[in-house]
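Lab meeting tomorrow. Please check the following:
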Amino acid sequence: MADRDAVKSESFGFQAEVARLLHMMVHSVYSEREIFLRELISNAADACDRRRYEALTRPELLGDTPLEIVITIDKAAKTLTLSDTGIGMSREDLIENLGTIARSGTARFMEAVKGAETKSSAPDLIGQFGVGFYSAFMVADKVRVVSRRAGSDEAFAWESDGLGSFTVEPATRDATGTTITLHMKEDAAEFLEKYRLSSIIRTYSDHIAIPIKLTEGSEAADTVNTAKALWTRPKSEIEEKDYAEFYRHTSGLFDEPLRTLHFRAEGKLEYTCLLFTPSQAPFDLYDPERKSKVKLYVKRVFITDDCEELLPAYLRFMRGVVDAQDLALNISREMLQHNPVLAAMKKAITGKVLGDLAKMAENEPETYAKFWGQFGKVLKEGLYEDFDRRDDILKLTRFKSTGVEGWTSLGEYISRMKEGQKAIYYLTTEEGAASSPQLEGFKARGIEVLLLTDPIDDFWLGVVTEFDGKPLQSITKASSADLSALGEAKDLGEAAPETDVSRLIAVMKGVLGDSVKDIRASERLTDSPVCLVADEGDMDLRLSRMLKAHDRLNAIAPRVLEINPRHALVKQLAERSGQEGQYDTIALASQLLLDQARILEGEPLPDLPGFSKRMSDVLLRLAQ
């Protein structure tokens, strides 16, 4: 003891790059000051892992000492203390690791064991002592570190105000490990509140496999974190209830997970994924920012739950964690979205998730139907966002149909196509619109039509034109009117003479003028007198309405009005079209038929007072 006390305190200057780092740390490196606690806890957990690893060959270094991290609040002294029972540091370690940025205790240690031991026996180290440590100066105007290296009786203290120099002197510490005392700044008082520290620990360090205890004053220390990283355990050791508990804890949701995907990737990239598919859509699923909620960890250290490069936006319903081994914990961690390693991980994880959904669709169709009902709208976003995965996503899509109850896939639709049918027919429509006039001719011929009821369908259909060699064809396009190649319709009744329909069409064109693009006799209608369709090459009906409603389209182009020559009303109008004195009646009926067609399509009427007057005139004539 006397020899140790004889060594006086020595003063050292920081290297120039460290001084610059300290300035950056305080002003720009981290977006949130609370990050300092994550960094210091990571370093402490790293030190504990190092001690445990070295004790494999030197058991005396560990003995009966429990590995733990204790955080103590002292409001009177305005200090926050973090003490660990890790490997500790010698005098030279303090100078080297805390005095320079270029060297890190963890980095040097990993270099020493690299190649000497198998990966399975090497510790899962986190943090890089020497970089994150400086974040302490964001909240403290003085930092004192007292450390005792495992296997040594000597302890030393490192102290600095972060302004350009530090001191190292002999100190006293009863046990192996390190104690860091932060003298908090006046504006950092929030970090002396127990509830605030507990929240930070649970957010960033909950799954560090070392107990993190928190105490204030003389009260007993409480363990704050769960001290177990569930995703690192073998799947054979994990029960469903453990997965469910972890899912609710990490996601903040209260339902049961519909699907669990737990795997470890090894090879060029090493990472572990524990991902969950919720059974119910989260309330923020359709938030305009479309952020992923999967948490990114690096060697069990929480990095962010807002990493857009971890999973594509169309998989944002997934919850869970991804723990990477090949990403560095350094000052650029806030910019991980630009990391090529993360980009490679994203590609592989996306493939895994889509593959797992495909297995669910094939082996558990009822479960997949539940999934699709909750998340199908979101998954379909990938059809126009992810060209490389488009075919995989198309196979996962499900639709309502006029041919079957429940959901059907495109592959199942093709298997039911009639002989001679060359296209996959669909109708973009609203929920409950299975009685749309456009469907009548297809139903009469037994042709199945997919009912695409999600607004997102109008967008991906612009980039997806076929599936399995079969073109996707909207039945609202005028080119679909010729149904003769699909067989004869049943029970359509006797059609009105073409000459009469032609005269009626001529009169209606004169009445309606530019309100319609054209008027044609219809092959698609069986029960309804009229319907509106889009001309070949024009925008589909619902898409144009959506764009107009969101001010993305100045005006909706006039549509083609199709009339049903088999309908009783049209027959009567056709007969009157050749008679004198019937023009006013035909004009009134023509305008009302156009109004009716617009209403059936969900389009607003451009002249509501005029529509009301026309209806009144018709009712008055009926009453006379």
